[in-house]
From TrEMBL:
Substrate binds at D22, F23, N24, R37, H60, L61, G62, K63, R121, R154. Pathway: Carbohydrate degradation; glycolysis; pyruvate from D-glyceraldehyde 3-phosphate: step 2/5. It is an enzyme of class 2 (transferase). Its main location: cytoplasm. This is Phosphoglycerate kinase. GO terms for cellular component: cytosol. GO terms for biological process: gluconeogenesis; glycolytic process. It comes from Candidatus Anaerostipes avistercoris. The keyword Nucleotidyltransferase does not apply. ATP binds at K205, G300, E331, G357, G358, D359, S360. Monomer. Its EC number is 2.7.2.3. InterPro entries: Phosphoglycerate_kinase, Phosphoglycerate_kinase_CS, Phosphoglycerate_kinase_N, Phosphoglycerate_kinase_sf.
Length: 401
């Protein structure tokens, strides 16, 4: 899975190139409110334009669930991409994605032209990887480039199905970067390697914990999932989030860490409050107690100060750090301290720092540490499955080198 052909391995001059991008951007009143994903796609698009390809872009946006929804049209994306690229991006407005407009627009293309297709999820068979849409998409192109890591863990028409009907299928720069960083971090890390897992649920990260324990030297558990581990140690955790069905699993993982000689760090103190903040960013009264001294009527909502220092210290000597999931309810300024402390430690280290998409990427960017990280993954679910050691259909489908 880690040795795929990329846009640097092919010649696209005069060829029609279908590029699966991730333009799943937030829209408000028809305006794009965060264009990170558009900017991230530019290097691949510019490379294909410069090489004389006829560049046909496609993506999903939101969840139209197989029917045209005007508010989820990619038309605003075409407008903004035209500005970012400094050339016209022609929008093919077909509710069936590959319709008369798309076919005509592609037929008229000159080398270096760019066309954007309508939201691929306007078609119900997109998410079912149906053969008809896969063939229609393939009929538009000679070469397929997948640059959408965010959907790489799903087998859909526009990232996997289409490759069955196209001879040349490669990855773009964004996909290549994800494969290089996430793939190598898990399979061939520079040591010592520290993995930091947070977020709410143990269930979401079962296989990740298991897989990373075998790969890393130190595993740090914070966030809501830490309380299930603390309960597994026999501690009182009050009204904190706990997954009672996973207590035995947590015991197994602690045993496994011991057998493998790995460091498994849990919070030694925790920030507690009477209840979850409502609304999430509301002022809230908190105190910090030892992790084995949480009162029965209190709830843990962030790691404590001593834990933050201990986790930060563990990062200092690392050569590779992978982080997925915040340390507490980071959306609340009072409960963001643990997440900030970890982000600061990562920002200051010389190690290769990889942020695994989703909430941790949002936290790092919101807190202003984004530019200090080596790599921030563009896919939440996809990066988790990569960290689990799973094969991602969207990556597997590309031609091997």
């Amino acid at each position: 899975m880690l040795n795929k052909k990329s846009v640097d391995d092919i010649n696209v001059k005069g060829k029609r190139v279908l590029v699966r991008c991730d333009f799943n951007v937030p829209l408000k009143d028809g305006k794009i409110t965060d264009e990170n994903r558009l900017v991230a796609a530019l290097p691949t698009i510019k490379k294909l334009i410069a090489d004389g390809g006829k560049v046909i872009l496609c993506s999903h946006l939101g969840k139209p669930k197989g029917e045209p929804k005007p508010e989820l049209s990619l038309a605003p994306v075409a407008v903004r991409l035209s500005e970012l690229l400094g050339q016209d991006v022609k929008f093919a407005a077909d509710d069936n994605v590959v319709g008369d407009n798309a076919k005509a627009a592609v037929a008229e293309m000159k080398d270096g032209d760019v066309v954007l297709l309508q939201n691929t999820r306007y078609r119900a068979e997109e998410t079912k990887n149906g053969e008809e849409l896969s063939k229609e998409l393939a009929s538009l192109c000679d070469v397929f480039v997948n640059d959408a890591f965010g959907t790489a863990h799903r087998a859909h028409c526009s990232n996997v199905g289409v490759t069955k009907f196209v001879d040349t299928a490669v990855v773009g720069y964004l996909m290549q970067k994800e494969i290089d960083f996430l793939g190598n971090a898990v399979n061939n890390p520079e040591r010592p390697m520290v993995a930091i897992l947070g977020g709410a649920k143990v269930a979401d990260k079962l296989n990740v914990i298991d897989n990373l324990l075998e790969k890393c030297d130190t595993l740090i558990i914070g966030g809501g999932m830490a309380y299930t581990f603390l309960k597994a140690k026999g501690y009182e955790v009050g009204t904190s989030l706990v997954d009672d069905e996973k207590i035995d699993y947590c015991k197994e993982m602690m045993d496994k860490a011991e057998k493998l000689g790995k460091n498994l760090y849990l919070p030694v103190d925790t920030t507690i409050a009477k209840a979850f903040p409502d609304p999430i960013d509301a002022e809230i009264e908190v105190s910090v107690v030892a992790s084995d001294a949480i009162p029965a009527d209190m709830m843990g909502l962030d790691i404590g100060t001593e834990t933050a220092a201990k986790f930060a210290d563990a990062v200092k000597s690392a050569k590779t750090v992978v982080w997925n999931g915040p340390m507490g309810v980071f959306e609340n300024p009072i409960l963001a301290k643990g997440t900030i402390a970890v982000a600061e430690a990562l920002a200051e280290t010389e190690a290769t720092t990889i942020i695994g998409g989703g909430d941790s990427a949002a936290a790092v960017n919101q807190l202003g540490f984004g530019d200090k990280m080596t790599h921030i993954s563009t896919g939440g679910g996809a990066s988790l499955e990569f960290l689990e050691g799973k094969d991602l259909p969207g990556v597997v489908a590309a031609n091997d080198k």
